[in-house]
Structure formats: C-alpha cells, structure tokens
Amino acid sequence: MKLSLPALREMKRDGRPIVMITAYDHPSARIVDAAGVDLVLVGDSAANVVLGHESTVPATMDEMTMLTAAVNRGVENALVIGDLPFMSYQVSDAEAVANAGRLIKDGGADVVKLEGAGPSLERVRALVSAGIGVMGHIGLTPQTATALGGHKAQGRQADAARRLFLDAISLERAGCFALVLEAVPAPVATTISRRLAIPTIGIGSGPGTDGQVLVLHDMLGIPGDGREPRFVKRYAEIGDTIRAALAEYADDVREHRFPQEQHTYAMPDDELAIFEAAASDRHEHAEDRA
Ligand code: KIV
C-alpha cells in the first residue's frame, strides 16, 4: 500500500527512521520498492549520475518527466518524489505549478521536491494551494552550488546555521511536508529536526535527522571511481561486479565459448535440410528474388 503523507508524519512522531533513496529507471525502481524503502526520489542528480553531465543544472522537464514515469511504473508502495529541475520553478508560480503538475500527471509522481527557501517559499505556497505535496531541500542545494561557493558543507558558522534554521521553519510554515537537509553540520541538522513538526531527511547531515537519503549509484559503487562525497557509505561494489562480468563475456565471445547450445534455437531436421538445399546456390536464390 502507498505510503501516505500522514503516515510519514507518524513515522517522525514515533521515532521510526525514514528511508529514502534515488532511482532513475524502471528496474532500479522495482528493486528499491521491493527492498521496502519509504521514499523514492527521482532526483535531478540523474543529470550527473545517469546522463553524464557535470552538474544537476542541465536537467530538463522532458528528461525528468520521462525518468519519473519509468520509476513510477516500477513502484507500488513507496512514495515517488519527482524533482523539479533548475529553472522549472524559479520564474513564476504559474510555471512552477504547471511543471509540478506535469511531473504528477505525466510522470506519475506522488509529490515534488524543490530547492531553497527565500523566493522558493512563494512557490511552495502556490504548489500546496494547487494540491501538490512539496518536499523542501536546503543546506547544500546543488542547483545553486556555484552561488554557494561549490559543493561544500553549509551552515558551519553560527550565523549561517541560524539562517538555515529560519529557512527550515519558513518552509514548514509555507506547507512543505518534509525537508531534505544536505551537507549541514550534524548538531545543526539535529536541532532543526527537533524543532520541526515535519520530517527531515538528511544527506551528509549526521544521524539526528528523521530519515536518510543516498544516491543509489553512490551507495552501490556505480561507477565506483572513488569520486563520491565523504558522506556516502558504500554498501556494495556493483561497478566492479559489472566490469568483471563484461570482461568475462568479452573473453567468452573472443574465445568462442559463448554462445553454447543452450543459448540457441533449434529447428526440425527436415526443415533445415530444405533450407540448406535452397541456400546452397546463392546465385540461383538471388535470381528467384529478382
Ligand atoms: O537530486 C538528488 O538526488 C537529491 C538528493 C541528493 C537529495 O536532491
């Protein structure tokens, strides 16, 4: 059964940790849902994780809608969160509502996520008024990482931590149902989490948030090139497993060990004899067709 927003709040109230993970395609979505995660984020991290960009900025609405639809078709129980890409909600309330509506109507997302506070507060209010559930995201916000001085922890000075705290309160008041805290010092994230009624989901923000999120490929070791942020815990080395499998496949093909009889289709002997007789004279066969 689909996780509901009231059930999510209940998890916070009961102190039950919330598990969130990203997914960008249908087979991964089926796996993460079967594993029993609570929230599946079709993150705009797809831009760098699966589309080969350097950052999340180039992600488009068309791409995010297509990926969200693929994920949604594989999820039965988890709440699917569609991520609004850069410039899909910054320009106006009307554009934000139209684009969030697309992720929900065409992509099948249950709710959406956007980054920032300040100007984003008005967008949150507009989306909530339109009946769309919104997850906020503060701290390190990858869409505006350049303005933040790069991909680094946020809120490490008292003043900046206080601003994050106030942003969190404002986003809750604007109607967010939950909040991602990315790369925020653990004690700051813990205080924010304690002071909010809505759940917080941390990434690189310590153990005091109400839930955790990781990028699926980072935690699985795909591509496993050692470029993941320090807050990632590797639970598997799938990149190595894939590389080893491909090397074995290439070896098998080159050494004529694959395919074997069990990988091929047979045909009746008499049919084969007729076919081979017909194919024995290539020229005659070609004339027949001419
Ligand atoms: O796009 C994404 O994957 C995210 C998570 C890191 C929270 O925003």
Characterize the structure shown.
With 290 residues, the protein is α/β, with parallel strands linked by helices. Helices cover 46% and strands 12% of the residues. It has helices at 5-14, 26-34, 46-49, 61-72, 93-105, 119-129, 145-148, 158-174, 186-195, 216-220, 238-254, 269-280, 282-289, and strands spanning 18-22, 39-42, 79-83, 111-113, 134-139, 178-182, 200-203, 211-214. Helix 2 (26-34) packs across helix 4 (61-72). The longest helix is centred in the middle third of the chain and has 17 residues, at 158-174. It is elongated. The mean pLDDT is 95. Residues 22, 41, 43-45, 83, 137, 180, 203, 213, 215 line the site of 3-methyl-2-oxobutanoic acid (KIV).
User: Strands of the biggest beta sheet: in what spatial order?
Assistant: 1-2-3-4-5-6-7-8
Number of helices: 13
Radius of gyration: 25 Å
Work out the strand percent.
5-15%
The geometry reads as elongated
| Unreliable segments of 5+ consecutive residues | none
Query: How would you spell out the order of helices and strands?
Result: HEHEHHEHEHEHHEHEEHHHH
- Main sheet attributes: strand count, strand direction, barrel closure: 8 strands, parallel, barrel
Kindly, what is the distance between the CA atoms of the first and last residues, rounded to a whole number of angstroms?
Answer: 61 Å
Structural class given helices, strands, pairing? alpha/beta
Helix content: 40-55%
Number of strands: 8
Please, what is the average pLDDT? 95
Which cofactor or ligand species appear?
3-methyl-2-oxobutanoic acid
